Amino acid sequence: MKNDQIKNIIFDLGDVILNIDVPIASRSFADLSGREQSEILTIFKESEIFRHFETGLMDEPSFRNYVREILDFPDLSDEAIDTAWNSLLLDLPPERVELLKKLAAKYRIFLLSNTSSIHITQVNKILKASTGVERLEDLFETVFLSYEMGLMKPDPRIYQQVLEQAGLKAEETLFLDDNADNIRSAAGLGIETIHVQKPVTILEYLKDYAV
């Protein structure tokens, strides 16, 4: 049901705008290194490599070098690492971009994503191939990315920073995310939330806002 107080809409990226399949990345690294997927998942979890990369504690060369180190695979190429890491990024349905354009005529719209620079480069390629739109910044008033902010959802500080930087009131702001922890954290600040759960998409969740 539409909340008539809403003036601003903040979107997550993965599985909200862009379809993703996170386990594909660990399978890709398993195939590259000749290890079991379960072992890859354990290595990545213990090293916290993706949290470090997605909060900006590592740049791209440091990330790639650390992948080589923890997989004990010094000859792994930059391209192979990037391809494996990006393999979880699937398609971006054009109708979702059309929805964003409609909403932008009535609301201030923003993106807030836990992500890395390698992913964003690839997402922009997918976006252009699918819709002709050059980059995410062309669709949103501001694109807030975890690796640039030094914070990750569900840390409440990341939502507070978005509200303050954009000059938004929590009660006038709607946030859509596929992660329940992220939704709870935003709701705790008084932000209106929608927990996006497949197979339902933003086309259905936001149909009343787009008319």
Automatic annotation (TrEMBL):
Q: What Pfam families does the entry give?
A: Hydrolase
- Superkingdom to which the source organism belongs: Bacteria
**Entry-linked SUPFAM superfamilies:** HAD-like
- What is the recorded name of this protein? Haloacid dehalogenase
Q: What organism is recorded for this protein?
A: Dyadobacter beijingensis
Give the source lineage, highest ranks first.
Answer: Bacteria, Pseudomonadati, Bacteroidota, Cytophagia, Cytophagales
